[in-house]
Amino acid sequence: MVVSILRPVLDETKRIIVIGDLNGNDEVFTRMLAKLRYTRNDILIILGNLVEQGPDSLRTLRHVMELSKVNPVYTLLGNRDIICKELIRNDRNEELLKYVLSKKSGLIWDMCKTSEITLRPDTNMFFVKQSLRVLYEREIAFVCAMPHILETERFVFAHAQILPGPLEEMKPVDVIKADAFLEKGFSFDKYVVVGHWPVTRYDLTKRDTNPIINRQRRIISMNGGISEQRDGQLNALVIPNSGADDFEIFREDSLPKGKILNSQMIGENAHTLTAPNNEVIPLRRTDDFVYCKQDKTDRNFWVPADFLHQKDGTWYSEDITDYQIPVTYGDIVSIVAKTSRGYYIKKDGITGWYYGMMESLSKETM
């Protein structure tokens, strides 16, 4: 398979909006567009992974398709979007059925549910595919037509990474699936803008879900982990048409909001437990917390019990930090979790612990 590259000539008088992985979360995507005051005069670039992780994969895909009918919208292929291409294959039917039934969510699940097709372990997935190809011909064609790379005069956009050298020599799999792109040490003449790898995994001292902008190496990493992580958010980057790199950052999440009632100073010696180094050894439990040792660092953490899960005899924790976040009375924050020891919150894209009182806010009071 050859890498597909789109090189449009963009209207420099228009605002360029870049949005990270949507992950099937149409509600947050819609709110983000409203926050941006998005119009058909804007150029919208979406960095792939439109579907799979969140609650509304089919609705999200159709929303993007509707926007692209009348607006300048460019969507790039992500590693999760290729699930749609499984529908045009005649093989791997049993594997696909097991995958969809294990998730009971995602694009193909949504398609079947919308079409009143019931999936069971003994379902003949070959015949289901035949039906879905007809019912969702437009959706399948839209995904199959999405390019791997978008290159403009000043930027290169891709889902996961770009390697130095001619773009045409890259392999599609290297573009849409690559871990920890920022840690590979590459630098570029043009800004390279990617999603895929959650930005929270780059900082082991605190959880920062905001885009990472490395001006020296000209790399921007965008994936805020919406629908992937409890404190995930959808990130947007607005590129000025002046040629400068004073980018604007916007963020949106689906978490409940609260008002801080007690100021709190920053804590010391913060550390983050994050995948792939998230194996833990539970030591003891108290109320709704478990005292754990991080297997690879020997650092100990108090972890909320519902953040832990076991697989094949090994315990794992969801990404979490012990960072005590500084807040001031009146701050409006996102509430990630309420526990017996305090609130796990997010302020301006930074996640941490707050130990004071909180006033919960309804959507009507926001």
Overview of the structural elements:
The protein is globular and about 55 Å long. It has helices at 26-36, 57-70, 93-103, 107-114, 125-135, 137-144, 172-176; strands at residues 5-6, 16-19, 43-46, 73-75, 149-151, 155-158, 191-194, 207-208, 212-214, 219-221, 234-239, 248-252, 257-260, 272-273, 279-286, 289-294, 300-304, 308-311, 314-317, 320-321, 332-339, 342-347, 350-354, 358-361. The chain has a 6-stranded mixed β-sheet with strand order 1-5-6-7-10-9, with no helix packed on it. A 6-stranded antiparallel β-sheet has the order 8-23-22-21-13-24, with no helix packed on it. The chain has a 5-stranded mixed β-sheet with strand order 4-3-2-11-12, covered by helices on one side. The longest helix has 14 residues, at 57-70. The protein has 2 domains: 11-78 and 146-252, Metallo-dependent phosphatases (Purple Acid Phosphatase, chain A, domain 2, 4-Layer Sandwich), CATH 3.60.21; 257-359, no CATH class. Helix content is 19%, strand content 28%. The protein is built from 7 helices and 24 strands. With 366 residues, it is α+β, with helices and mostly antiparallel strands.
Short description:
The chain is α+β, with helices and mostly antiparallel strands and 366 residues long.
Largest sheet: 6 strands, mixed
Number of helices: 7
Quaternary organisation: single chain
- CATH-defined topology of the largest domain: Purple Acid Phosphatase, chain A, domain 2
